Every structure is written in structure tokens, then in C-alpha cells.
Amino acid sequence: MAVTFFPGTDAKLLAWSLNFSTLITAGPTTYGLTTAQANTYRGLHNAYATALAACDPSMRNKMAVATKNTARNNLKTNARLLGNLVNGTASVTNAQKLQLGLTVKAKPTPIPPPSAAPALDVMSVAGWTVKVKLHDTTSGKKRGKPPGVSGASVFSFVGAAAPTNIAAWTFQGSTGRTSIDVEFANTLAGGTTVWLTAFWFNGRKQSGPACAPVSSNLPGGMVSMAA
Q1: What is the pLDDT of residue 227?
Q2: Which one of 65, 135, 174, 192 is CB 3.0 to 4.6 Å from 188, fit for a cystine?
Q3: Which residue has the higher pLDDT, 28 or 106?
Q4: What are the backbone angles phi and psi of residue 224, rounded to the nearest 5°?
Q5: Which of 182, 217, 218 is nearest to 198 (CA)?
Q6: Last residue of a domain, one of 67, 100, 133
Q7: Domain co-membership, 145 together with 93
Q8: 161 to 66, 153, 198, 221: CA distances (angstroms)
């Protein structure tokens, strides 16, 4: 666990440590600690306070600085240990951790399922292959996926009218890109009407609404480009 709760200067660290020591000494079990652990830390705090005071500019020397640095390292090492114990105690609330001066990790906000359907454009039809492109309908731009979207699932149907039940469609695959080639059976006659639809999904594979079906006609060996 990376510790980031220590202040950057000696004076601020001393103030932080005083608050930490005062709270855990007053109620060690409240934080998942023992009286002995709180007393040990209080001794390290006092040693650091004394060593830091001896580093006053009017009396500062190399030996005093070395003593202070050793006391600071001992204090930090023990504070890390106690901090881990506090963080590992289920009964200690985030508010209590913040009172101690510990860092509380923010819980990531779950990305919700996509709320809007993609726009589906037929870009070209070559033989029995239909190239489609998807884009965000909420941004006003004809490219890219919306925020929070990982990819799209694409479905096809062959027939004069598109069904309303997605179970009647053929799943063509999922992609993290915004374009996909949909392959139809090469036994289909030229002029056959095919339909395509798609929906976005997020990183947890939760899907959004499907877009309105888009139709195209297979040229059966010819190549046509979307207008």
C-alpha cells in the first residue's frame, strides 16, 4: 500500500503526528489498535518532537540533524504499520480515518449502461459484404464512441421487414471499433433486402438500447457506395 498521508515538512509532520497520537491514545480500540501500540507510537512521537526541537537554527548541527532524521524515520515506519491496521479494521469509518489524517481512497464510480443508441450508417456494399459505421448520437459528431462506451454489438436480419424482437436477429459480433464488415451468405440473390442494428455496451458488458434498423440491398457481386 503506497502511503501518501505524510505532510512534506518536519513542522507539518509533527502537527500531523501529534493529532494522530492524541486520538489513538485516547481510544486505541476505536481504531482497531491496542493500548500498547498507542503508547509505543506516543514514545516515537515524543522522540521526534525532542529531536526536531534540537534542530533549531541557533543550535543546529550535523549530529542533531542525523538524530532528527532517525527519529522521523522511526515515526513514519510505525505510523505506516498503524495506518495499515486502521485501514484493515472494518469497523473504522472513513470519517475516523480522515480525523487521524489518513488517506481515504475514493471508490470508483461505476460506469452506467449506455443510455443512447448508436447511429448506424451503411458505408458501402460489396457483393455480400456490408460495411457499417457507428457513431455517437449525443455529441453531434459523426465519429467516435460516447464516454463510458467500450464497444458495440451488431446484428443482422434478412427479409422484407425488420423484426421487433432482437431474438429474431443474427448476432454478427462485437467490436471495440466503430466500423465492422457484416458478411451475408453468398447464396443470397442480388437485390435481397438486409437489415442491420447495433447497441453500445460498457466495460461491464452492460448494453444500451438498439438503434433503429437500417436496411440495404445486396448487389450480389456488384459494389455500391452509400451516398
Answers
A1: 42
A2: 192
A3: 28
A4: -125, 145
A5: 182
A6: 100
A7: no
A8: 84, 21, 17, 23
* Cα–Cα distance measured from residue 116 to residue 201, given in angstroms and rounded to the nearest whole number: 10
What is the pLDDT of the chain when averaged over all its residues?
A: 91
Q: pLDDT tens digits, residue range 136-174?
A: 988 766 678 999 999 999 999 999 999 999 999 999 999
Q: Which domain holds residue 45?
A: 10-100
Query: Is 189:219 a contact under the CB 8 Å cutoff?
Result: no
C-alpha–C-alpha distance, residues 224 and 131, integer Å: 11
pLDDT surpassing 80 at residue 32: yes
Phi, psi of 169, deg, nearest 5: -90, 160
Which residues are bridge partners to 124 per DSSP? 131, 225
DSSP summary character for residue 106: P
In a shared domain, residues 166 and 216: yes
Please indicate, yes or no, if residue 106 is contained in any of the structural domains.
Answer: no
Which residues in 161-192 are b (16+ Cβ under 10 Å) and which e?
ebeeeeeebeebebeeebebebebeeeeeeeb
The residue assigned the cell 515515526 is: 75
pLDDT digits (tens, 9 = 90+) for 182-218: 999 999 999 999 999 999 999 999 999 999 999 999 9
